[in-house]
Amino acid sequence: MDIILSSLLLLYGLMGGNGDQDITAQQLAVSYINAAAGTTIVQPAEGYPALPGESDNSAPAAKTDPQPDAPEIKGIYVSAYSAGGARMPSLIKLVDDTELNSMVIDMKDDNGYITYATETPELLDLGTPQKYIGDIKGLMDTLKQHNIYPIARIVTFKDTMLATKHPELSFLQADGTLLKNSKGESFVNPYSEKVWKYNVDIAKEAARLGFKEIQFDYVRFPEGFETNADTLTYEKTDKSRVDTIAGFVKYARQQLEPLGVRVSVDIFGYAASVPAAQGIGQDFVKISNDVHVISPMIYPSHYSSGWFHLDDPDMNPYATIKGAMEDTHKKLDPMGSLKPVIRPWIQDFTANWLGRGHYMKYGKEQVEQQIKALKDSGVNEYLLWNAGNKYSFDTSASADPD
Length: 402
Hints:
alpha/beta; TIM Barrel; 9-stranded parallel beta sheet; two-stranded parallel ribbon; 12 helices; 14% strand; globular; DUF4015; GTP-binding protein; GH
């Protein structure tokens, strides 16, 4: 255990991020350290909890890939702002002109906005549309014309809009105010049946619009939750946080799989290298049991000195990705037929917050090194993350007006 804790302390050197990467390294490290030091390591369970309030008397239905003939996905993140704005033509051209074949597009963004003009009463009841994508049907037609595999990103439990609109679905502090993180953002309660159904209802609408996969992000409790959980007011059940998060994933998969869409989840890359983070409710294997695709976020900049025997992982993109994949395979290979497709997020941004001498400028060469490391590890799928959607091999991006 001392060896495990020593390794976990290396997380304290991490900084920065995007996607579900805004959690500070210190806070995440505390979650994993507490899990290793104070609790039993969670192993894959025989079954998961049903939707809160329902009985749980049967084993989960067998997972079946609804798209066994799907291509090997090589994609980019596209914000709703880009998808509905002036940058989209250049991003489509980028996909057309390269080996890329997919876009991950925000349907519910990091603030909790539904990003298109939904007319579904159930979604309007809880959700707050912000019409970044003015013509969602036109967008889907364009993607189909260019043979671009569409993936709908749904930021799940980080939802400031819903938390503000319905504080009873979030976490209240002792003084009655809404729990917020250091950026002023709020999470909604993963124990809540309404929250589960709301997010899956958005996913169902995305499926009806033509998306072939639903990618859930921020599938967790707030960072550092274990340090103040007992002082907060919120709905809860007798299920652990880990089983609650796994239960949501199972519920989402069972609801969406019959619609012919895959379910994927973003998860911290180093979750494959350490015990379950019971504080935030994430267990790599339990989540993987009920998804068709798992997308670990293995950005080199998110590993601190010492990981994979490297002084500066960001300066060694190939070795970092190779090490991350070795740990991922160790975690998932024993799952047998339940093992999901591994499709990591990789880095197409420069992590200058790491400080001089600890980072390098990322461009085409660094992206190619990461892709090579994946292929050398038997992984042929990947997603590129750049929060501003300015990808290193998109030579027109710097000229875009927005």
